[in-house]
Amino acid sequence: MPPSIDRRSFMLGVCALTATTLSLPRRAAAALPDTSVRSLRSGELVIYFRHGATTWSGVDRIEWPRERQRLLSEVGIAQSKLIGDQFKRLNLPVGSVLASPFARCRDMAEIAFGRVEERRELLGLLSDSGGREERIAYLRDKVSTPTNGTGNRIIVSHTSNIREVAGVALDEGDGVLLRPLGNGTFETLETIKPEEWSKI
């Protein structure tokens, strides 16, 4: 006898919950695991940030002038400064700093790390459908290629990109630690809210 509708719905719900749980990285709490801290101090990780808090929500276009784009709000600027200050306090080595050319991403990178390399390959997947697969491949390469002693690789972009590549959804200002393993593979570690950097 086929299962009842109630049982079928229950099993589908369990499967969906299990899949969602397996895709989520661990949330940083009072402190990061020692292994993650050691990797940060050694400059071995990729830290992918979603841009800080913005003045409005929605989808904008890269061809729009700066004043029409979503920009960092006062909260977003404060988040960026806090992250930069904590990297200096912890003396974490920073290698390349890559960002989407949207103003909110570039501004966060400059405020936090003092330098930035704009990469159109980091444009949000919701902002422009052209070159989608190429952008996904670019990000996968950047989160899987070892840093080889050049310092932690910083990426400031959009939640759509990292959700597609790593199955991680980030709030504005959040970062996720990833361990590049080479050959297109990586390990997703902890996610960190801006204020949690001070707990490391």
Can you give a write-up of this model?
This protein is of the alpha/beta class. The chain has one domain: 3-Layer(aba) Sandwich (Rossmann fold). It has 6 helices and 7 strands, in the order αβαβαβαβαβαββ. The chain has helices at residues 5-23, 34-42, 74-90, 103-113, 132-144, 159-166, and strands at 26-27, 46-50, 94-99, 117-118, 152-157, 175-182, 185-192. A 7-stranded mixed sheet has the order 1-7-6-2-5-3-4, sandwiched between helices. β6 and β7 (185-192) form a beta hairpin. α5 (132-144) packs across α6 (159-166). It is globular and about 40 Å long.
Summarize the SSE layout with pairings.
Layout: H1 5-23, E1 26-27, H2 34-42, E2 46-50, H3 74-90, E3 94-99, H4 103-113, E4 117-118, H5 132-144, E5 152-157, H6 159-166, E6 175-182, E7 185-192
Parallel strand pairs: 1-7, 2-5, 3-4, 3-5
Antiparallel strand pairs: 2-6, 6-7
Give a brief rundown of this model.
Helix content is 38%, strand content 18%.
